Amino acid sequence: MSGTPPAGDEARGSASEGLRKLRHDLSNPLAAVLAETQLLLLNAETLDGETVASLRQIEALARKMRQILHEVDG
Fold first, then answer.
1. Terminal alpha carbon distance of the chain
2. CA dist., res. 74 & res. 65, Å (int)
3. How would residue 8 be classed by pLDDT, with cut points 50, 70 and 90?
4. How far apart are CA 51 and CA 55, in angstroms?
5. For residue 31, which of 67, 66, 60 has the smallest C-alpha distance?
6. Per residue in 21-71, pLDDT tens?
7. Integer Cα distance of 39 and 49 in angstroms
8. How far apart are alpha carbons 62 and 32 in whole angstroms?
9. Residue 13 is inside which H or E element, if any?
């Protein structure tokens, strides 16, 4: 029966486990992106305005992604 999809509760459990794995696999790289962006922003005064604006956008989007990942699991 390995060729048939799981049914009922088993399928939901498998999907839930898949979401948990996806969240886990994305969390560490996302945290690294956010941390590196924030480190760069510590020296914002040494960067041009366009770079700072881009870094702030990356930071905001990374935070939004982190929030979405937490909502998927919670």
1. 32
2. 14
3. low
4. 6
5. 66
6. 888 899 999 999 999 999 999 999 999 999 999 999 999 999 999 999 888
7. 16
8. 10
9. helix 9-41
3-state secondary structure of 56: helix
Return d(Cα 30, Cα 43) in angstroms, integer.
21
Integer Cα distance of 14 and 67 in angstroms: 23
The total number of residues shown for the chain amounts to 74
**Sequence ranges of the domains in the chain:** 9-73
pLDDT in tens, 17-30: 888 888 889 999 99
pTM for the whole thing?
0.73
